[in-house]
Amino acid sequence: MTVFVSSIGIARFGRRSEGLVELLAEAGKMALEGAPVRHRAPQAIFVGSMAAGPLAGVENLVPRVAAALGLTEIPGYRIEAASATGAAVFHSAVGAVASQMFDSALVVAGEKMTSCTTQDVTTVLSRSLSPHEILHGATMPSLAALVSSTYLGHYSIPIEQIGRVTVDNRANAAKNPFAHFQKPVTLEEVNTSRMVSTPLRLLHVSAVSDGAAAALITRTGGKVSVAGMGQATDVLDVVSRKDLTGFRATRLAAMRAYESSHLTRKEVGVAEVHDAFAPFELIDIEDLGLCGPGEALGWLDKGHGMLSGSVPVNPSGGLLGRGHPVGVSGLVQIAEVYRQLSGEAGPLQAGHPAVGIAQSVGGLGSHNFVTILRREVAGG
Amino acid sequence: MTDAGFPLKAKVLAATELMVPPHGFSPPHRLALVESEDGTHNLAIVDGELPKAGEAGELNIDAEHRMHWTVRGK
Predict the structure, then answer these.
(1) pLDDT (tens digit, 9 = 90+) per residue, A327-377?
(2) Which residues of chain A does B64 touch, with a Cβ-Cβ cutoff of 8 Å?
(3) Which of A93, A123, A131, A183 has the most other CB atoms within 10 Å of its CB?
(4) Which residue of B33, B50, B64 is in closest CB contact with A198?
(5) What CATH number was assigned to the domain covering residues A4-116+209-218?
(6) Residue boundaries of the structural domains of chain B
(7) How big is the CA angle at A196 (ends B12 and B35), to the nearest 5 degrees?
(8) Taking Cα atoms as reference points, which of A131, A342, A308 lies closest to residue A216?
(9) Three-state SS for A235?
(10) How far is B68 from chain A (nearest CA, A)?
């Protein structure tokens, strides 16, 4: 049973004065208004937020968002999968529509983070790590630094060369009206920004942000269809994993997504990947099979990931440029792939891709998702 | 793993110095991924300067069940 994306909505990322429910409603309203009239009465609403209570002081999101959108009385669900929440809520809704539980559903995900201090945000995000790691004072950036060091050391890549990931993604974000960061940065700025957790500097790390995204999905047509989906889990304890040069959960999720879509990596024409930390973009590219192990930096150097390249990577600016309101990123990636496939990406349009892939990392690689979308011949 | 087995010889695989640690820890907070002599991988708090990958040392455990890595002989 084919499920289509009829429309999408994005509430601009950045430091927003609105509350979480207002941001979710803004994105949801945009998706509803952008859909054909026959799709504007979804049968269910699926809401995602990683930490609405701790970060935004609000819970019980489904009736609040439904009411704000004039959808009170329809069924709804809230889904959570750490920093992959946005992808998880999309996958859940697609499953419900594909199984004919509902004919259509509105998927929304949002996060409100900038009201909290960085240390409070760090503490909340750390709760998705293993108790053993929390006991030792580990945080998301410190574990990402250990993974990054392992990857960079294994392939003898100096951290200074990784700054290009941020430079490229910030250049794209500067053309994306929905992105948090609207100014490009230079390699020197990246490599001299303050240290967060060695070897990761501030501009290697995606920013705390606010924002929301939405997608209206149906079984009755649309410009883009869901070609395949995959997800996988891994042990929480990062350091107990045998191989830290990649994320096994991404590799498994990608394999399942490719299998379910009957497509291969060679057919992927655009990719939105989880660059929460700059070295992760290289890991993600390799885990998706877009190039071989240890080849991602050279692959990027050859221009494959640029807007004009064979597989543009993070044309939206990625998490590094768009900002990372954690529960949204997985869904806004899907929305950005939709914009590419439907030819609606404006100055960031990367050719006319037929197939796009979105990859989201939950926690520190413990619950990862891959989504493959395909352009339909005619708009729905 | 029992406390009686400590200290263990352990080699640093990767280490980091965290500038903004969570509540209860002081900056800079140094952590290392270490491989102990029995081949297991552990996360450990580094006591002392930030080590380089490959550096050898000892792994101990404190009363809070936290692992601590130190340069051997220090």
Answers:
(1) 999 999 999 999 999 999 999 999 999 999 999 999 999 999 999 999 996
(2) 135
(3) A93
(4) B50
(5) 3.40.47.10
(6) 3-71
(7) 15
(8) A342
(9) coil
(10) 9
CA A81 to chain CA mean position, Å: 12
Residue whose C-alpha is closest to residue A303's, from A294, A311, A293, A315: A311
ipTM (interface pTM): 0.94
Which phi and psi angles does B2 have, rounded to 5°?
A: -100, 155
Class of domain B3-71: mainly beta
Q: Where are the alpha helices (DSSP H) in A262-351?
A: 278-287, 296-301, 318-322, 329-341
Distance between CA A373 and CA A150 in Å, rounded? Answer: 32
pLDDT bucket at A1, cuts 50 / 70 / 90? confident
For chain A, the structural domain boundaries read 4-116+209-218
- Residue in chain A closest to B51 (alpha carbons) equals A198
CB-CB under 8 Å, B18 with A197: yes
Q: Is the peptide bond before A199 cis (omega within 30 degrees of 0)?
A: yes
A149 with B17: Cβ contact below 8 A: no
Between CA B13 and CA A88 the distance in angstroms is: 33
Give the tens place of pLDDT for each residue, B24-60: 899 999 999 999 998 999 999 999 999 999 999 999 9
- A122 in contact with B at a CB cutoff of 8 Å? yes
> Looking up tokens 């945000």, which residue turns up?
A121
